Amino acid sequence: MKKIKINFSTTHIILFSFFIAIFIGSVLLMLPVSSVNGEVTPFIDALFTATTATCVTGLVVVPTVTYWSWFGQAVILVLIQIGGLGIITVLSAITVFFHKKFGISDRILIQDAFNLNTLSGLVAFIKKVVKGTFIVEAIGALAYMTVFVPQFGAKGVWISVFNSVSAFCNAGIDVIAPNSLCDYANNPIINIVTCLLIILGGIGFIVWWDVIRVAKLRKTRKIKFFKSLTLHSKIAITSTLVLIVIGAVVIYLYEYNNPLTFKDYTFFEKIQGAVFQSVTTRTAGFATVPQENLTEGAATFSLLLMFIGGSPVGTAGGVKTVTFAVLLASAIASVKNKNDVSLFDRNISKYAISKAIAVVAMSFAIMFISSLLLLAVTDASALDVLYETVSATATVGLSRNLTSSLNTLGKIIIAATMYLGRIGPISLAVALNLKKQNQNIIKNPTEDISVG
Questions:
Q1: Residue 447 phi/psi, 5° resolution?
Q2: What gap in Å lies between CA 81 and CA 162, rounded to an integer?
Q3: Residue 103: inside a domain, yes or no?
Q4: What is the DSSP-derived secondary structure letter of residue 259?
Q5: Is the dihedral of CA 409, 412, 416, 419 positive or negative?
Q6: Residue 435 lies in a domain
Q7: 447 falls within a domain
Q8: What is the C-alpha to C-alpha distance for residues 171 and 80, in angstroms, rounded to an integer?
Q9: Which SS3 state, helix, strand or coil, does residue 68 take?
Q10: Helices and strands (DSSP H and E) totals, the chain
Q11: Which of 241, 234, 224 is nearest to 279 (CA)?
Q12: How many CB atoms lie within 10 A of CB 55?
């Protein structure tokens, strides 16, 4: 009998690795030792929690701080760390730790996992990613301890570590209170530390190394810092800053006189709240104000920020800042009737533009279908449903108080959406495309059509 050989591409391995991590996490969270009351957690709730942790989303159906035991919270924290770094990164780091050599297939897998353009220096890249992650998370935890240890005692150490890992990985899950960070809305330390961790995790690892590279160059020669960065870093940094500022201004204006959010705040507290909301919507998921209390204008604009998300090769989700910038530049070039799309005096490749279009189209399709399905199984308003599905698609974790009231079908829909959003629309499309492209295929004739 002829054996059937199944060839898994690197994309399939990435998809299945997330699925396996979620499944193992679900089994562990179902155990009686994982819950505070010592009872077996229903499979759908364990599955949802494992998915939101591994996909670093933050939507929860049960309060993390009161429902899960120390063991359950530890499982969730490990899943967040694995999801933030990526399963492939964790496995690669273990391989490096035991001094095992990487084969060409391993290098290709790492390249695809991080969406890199080269196979060289991958081992060093993995080492730097893991080392940099732990250093930033440790500093974040120490900063949190200045607030949480005086308040909670020894428990504050655990809260600080958990919150630091969750913030850096853009997970948005915390073990402080059921209302996220709303009790610390006007605490500058919590706001600043959380925002910095979110931004550092979401800006992307390759931006880190590029900034460090240029900083080292400046010690030996006179160069302009920003001009010496790569095009990717310029786009990621500029897009991040612009979106944070614009988001903060829009949210500030909409919420200025909202009695449910900013009305009774001082001027500084309003600025602080607006900046935090602008940062956290970029796939972090922490909240210093209840999202259901936002005005419809601020909530609608938050949808756009959530959909865009963070930057590539980081812990954030969304279609990514660079993708959005490339599409915007492409649209402007079309309006100006230019053949080339350029940013910072550099032309963008046609492949990058095509990929950006595909990412946005697939992400929108996932969000739209998820919204239609959720509207069919819930009585919630369209805005609340959109907030939920965009949050799940972009792995944000913010909700207008809908997640906890979802029925079984609703939980399945959102869990599936979080998974699809985390693995990425391109990875999904490649995995589903099982046919090999025939290089000798006869091309169809080209014909002009009217667009717009």
A1: -140, 140
A2: 10
A3: yes
A4: T
A5: positive
A6: no
A7: no
A8: 7
A9: strand
A10: 18, 2
A11: 241
A12: 29
15, 86 in Cβ contact below 8 A?
no
Give the pLDDT confidence score for residue 343 in this predicted structure.
92
208: left (phi over 0), alpha (psi -120 to 50) or beta: alpha
pLDDT, tens only, 195-210 = 999 999 999 888 998 8
Count structural domains, the chain.
1
DSSP labels, 311-355: -SSSS--SS-HHHHHHHHHHHHHHHTT-SS-EETTEEPPHHHHHH
Domain containing 416 equals: 10-429
What is the model's pLDDT at position 4?
Answer: 44
- Asked if pLDDT for residue 71 goes beyond 50, the answer is yes
Cα-flanking dihedrals φ and ψ of residue 158, to 5°? -65, -45
User: Each residue of 22-55: pLDDT tens digit?
Assistant: 999 999 999 999 999 999 999 999 999 999 999 9
342-343 and 346-347 strand pairing: antiparallel
86-99: average pLDDT:
66
Concatenate the DSSP letters of all residues of 116-170 into one string: -S-STTHHHHHHHHHHHHHHHHHHHHHHHHHHHHHHHTTHHHHHHHHHHHHHHTT
- Report yes or no on 437 lying in a domain: no
